[in-house]
Amino acid sequence: MTEIEIDKERIPSHIAIIMDGNGRWALRRGKDRSYGHQAGVDTVRRITSECTRLGVKFLTLYTFSTENWNRPADEVAALMGLVLSSLEDEIFMKNNVRFRVIGDVNRLPRAVGDKLRETEEHTAANGKMTMVVALSYSSRWEITEAVKRISRQVAAGDLYAEDITEETVRSNLTTSFMPDPDLLIRTGGERRVSNYLLWQIAYSELYFCDTFWPDFGEADLHRAIAWYQQRQRRYGKTEKQIESER
Fold first, then answer.
1. Around 101, how many Cα atoms within 13 Å sit in the side-chain half-sphere?
2. Residues labelled catalytic
3. What pLDDT digit, counting tens, does each position of 172-188 carry?
4. What is the value of pTM for the model shown?
């Protein structure tokens, strides 16, 4: 797959990625799982730079789920350390990328939370692309929190239950600042979405590949985008309706 096969006028505005396969990649090389996570950080740098160059506006990366807290303590500690060491200004400032985080950040170690806030503030003026890290995140957690916020609004008399709409729910999600993903990529060979952006991917195109995340390169990204560009996004309409609207 070469870049020339990508239509530069139809680059997905928002790409979400489930970065799977770090641990298995390392184990197959006789290494500790943390070695794979470190290699995965290098892939994040490459893919972030390439998405910025191609004109992607939002890149959302599933970094650590709420279920991942159940992993061995030493692996969780290593992952938290990686979060701290990988939040380098260079990747954001060099590429004019804004950094945002979504998830239950109150569960994170204080040093990690402080670094996340610092990076968000430092990159707030960057405007070429927004990289969103889903950290201590799950979609069920996010939707549950949205229900709580809406319930408090109803209890306070600021909102009537009959007036709750899809937009009400959307505006109370942690992702309300960005559009829904056009393309969801999952690496590592699994064919599931693992509690990731369940509300937001209702009409996203889902692309699964066997490549482990540390091996996922620019050519793999191009291949996923080329596949996306072959899809017809109908949003419940018929093919004839879509053709008539062009």
1. 24
2. 20, 68
3. 999 999 999 999 999 99
4. 0.92
